[in-house]
Amino acid sequence: MSCASLLGQIKTFTQCNSYEKPLFLHKGDTVISLCDTAILINTIRYNLYESARQTILTNKYSKLQDEMNSALTEQIGLYKLWNDSLQTQYTRVSGMFASSLNNTQRELIKVSGEITTAKDSLNKANENLNSALSHLNKARWEKYKWGGAGLLIGILGTSVIMLAL
C-alpha cells in the first residue's frame, strides 16, 4: 500500500481562473497548488458558491437569490437549534444551581443550630467549672482556717502546759 493511498489522492490545483469549477477535496487528499492563492471551504459554503457560480455562468440571478435565501434560512435554523440547545443547558444548570443553593442553605441553618447548641453547652460547662472551682477554693480556705485554728489552739495549749510546769 503506497503512502498516497493512505492519505487520499494527490490533486493538482491549476484552476487560477475564478470562473472555473472548484476542485472538490476529501479528508486526507494532498493538494499541490500552482496558483498564487487557493481558498479551501467546507461543504455548505462549497454548495453555495457552486450554485452562485452556475447562476452567474447561466445569468439566472433570481436562482442565486433563492439559493442565498435558502442558505440563509438553513443558517438561521442552525442558529435556532444552537440557541435552543444553549437555553436547555442554561435551564438545567440554573436548576442544578438553585437546588444546590437551597441544599447549602438548609445545611448552613442546620450547622448554625448545632453550633448554637454546642456554644450553649460550652457556656453551661464553663459555668459549672467556675462554680466547682469556687466551691473548691472555699473548701480549701475552710481547711486552712480549721488547720490554722487547730495549730493556734495546739500552740496555746502547749504554752499553757509549758507555763504550768
- Unreliable spans are 1-5
Distance linking N and C termini: 137 Å
Number of strands: 2
Give the SSE string. Answer: HEEHH
- Oligomeric form of this entry? single chain
Strand content: under 5%
Radius of gyration: 49 Å
Query: Portion of residues in helices?
Result: over 70%
Q: How are the strands of the largest sheet arranged?
A: 1-2
Mean pLDDT: 83
Topology readout:
Blueprint (H helix, E strand, L loop, with lengths): L2 H5 L2 E4 L16 E4 L9 H16 L2 H104 L1
Parallel strand pairs: 1-2
In short:
By secondary structure, this protein is mainly alpha-helical. It has helices spanning 3-7, 43-58, 61-164, and strands spanning 10-13, 30-33.
Which terms summarize this structure?
disordered N terminus; two-stranded parallel sheet; about 160 residues; mainly alpha; rod-shaped
Task: Provide structural commentary.
This protein is mainly alpha-helical. The protein has a domain at 1-40. The chain is built from three helices and two strands, in the order H-E-E-H-H. A two-stranded parallel ribbon has the order 1-2. Helix 2 (43-58) packs antiparallel against helix 3 (61-164). The longest helix has 104 residues, at 61-164. The chain is rod-shaped. The N and C termini lie far apart (137 Å).
